[in-house]
Design brief:
The protein is α+β, with helices and mostly antiparallel strands and 321 residues long. The chain has a single domain, classed as Sulfite Oxidase, Chain A, domain 2 (Alpha-Beta Complex). The chain is built from eight helices and 13 strands. The strands form two sheets. Strands 1, 4, 5, 8, 9, 10, 12 and 13 form an eight-stranded mixed β-sheet that branches. The chain has a five-stranded mixed β-sheet with strand order 3-2-11-6-7. The relative contact order is 0.17. The structure holds ligand MTE.
């Protein structure tokens, strides 16, 4: 994001026309077959591409908060990534993350919260029903894709953790493991990667912690075993491989804001009216749509203005970008 100028299309990003048409046809057949109540097998489209090594998640329910848009293929979602801990190239996370061990996993909860402590993954995730949430992920680099996440409401977890009345923000931290994350041996960013939300943003029903994609556990390159997804914000807010959740009274430091404050704000709401200083945010390149598909207009709050605009009433979105 800091070092590359988007959007250069590489040959590896171009979906062969036939594959694109096949996928469209597959979606139509899947739609015609009707949808079951439980999605344990993952959303139909692209599911055929999923390597057997990924464990299938049981009892995944479809969510009414999903977009009706066609998801990108499993291949698009797992081979075109931003995860600087594994390198800055889009294909680096897929290439360099095989040695990463996402289990066993623990998450530390601290700060302004009653239930502070260090919890096993199962204690954090286990009590929550899993849902499939299909969201468009709009990257600040002016590209987007549609991802069928599997996850649960962050707000439900926060209610169980019982923040104190002083908690105004929630901060998240990614694991540091230089032996397994070769990108952390470089100083391209300051590690650990950190992100934050206001309490109202964290409690919003659209905000989830994701544990899977396409009905299977999260691949390492997508932030295994636990990552944030905030669909109305630029993708960099959706921090991966979370090991710490902290509640605070003051606004926490966030990685990209600290790295280039003039380019990346704390809020990072998707906003076509506020350009990045080095490129326009008015349109987005849709990954996997093919070379001739053109660009799609970017929507305010990534299309969720009706649901989230009230969180920012009275706030100047040009200054608070
Ligand atoms: N989280 C960490 N820890 N490190 C990162 O480099 N990149 C962010 C975000 N979360 C990043 C991260 C950016 S810029 C984007 S666009 C999304 O992850 C990409 O998520 P995806 O690779 O699953 O599509």
């Amino acid at each position: 994001m800091l070092i590359k100028r988007p959007p250069d299309i590489r040959p590896s990003e171009i979906t062969p026309e036939q594959r694109y048409l096949d996928r469209r046809q597959f979606m139509r057949s899947a739609g015609a077959a009707g949808t079951g109540l439980l999605l344990g097998a993952g959303t139909a489209a692209g599911a055929a591409d999923i390597p057997a090594k990924y464990r299938r998640l049981g009892d995944v329910r479809p969510s009414p908060l999903s977009t009706a848009e066609t998801p990108n293929s499993f291949e698009d979602i797992t081979r075109y990534n931003n995860f600087y801990e594994f390198g800055t190239g889009k294909d680096d996370p897929a290439k360099n993350s095989a040695a990463f061990r996402p289990k066993p996993w623990q998450v530390t909860v601290d700060g302004e919260v009653e239930q502070a402590g260090t919890f096993d993954y199962d204690d954090i995730v286990g009590p929550h029903p899993l849902e499939e949430r299909i969201y468009r992920l709009r990257c600040v680099e002016a590209w987007s894709m549609v991802v069928p996440w599997v996850g649960f409401s962050l707000g439900d977890l926060i209610k169980r953790l019982k923040p104190t009345s002083r908690a105004k923000y929630v901060a998240f931290e990614t694991i540091v493991r230089k032996e397994e994350m070769p990108g952390q041996r470089s100083r391209v960013l300051r590690w650990p990667y950190v992100e934050g939300l206001t309490m109202a943003e964290a409690m919003h029903p659209l905000t989830i912690l994701a544990v899977g994609v396409y009905g299977v556990e999260l691949p390492n390159q997508n932030g295994a075993p636990l990552r944030l997804v905030v669909p109305w914000k630029y993708g960099f807010k959706s921090i991966k491989s979370i090991v710490r959740i902290s509640f605070s009274e003051s606004q926490p430091r966030t990685t990209w804001n600290a790295s280039a404050p003039g380019e990346y704000g704390f809020y990072a709401n998707v906003n076509p009216a506020v350009d990045h200083p080095r490129w326009s945010q008015k349109r987005e390149r849709v990954i996997g749509a093919g070379l001739f598909a053109g660009k799609k207009p970017t929507l305010l709050f990534n299309g969720y203005a009706d649901q989230v605009a009230q969180l920012y009433s009275g706030l100047d979105l040009t200054r608070n970008f």
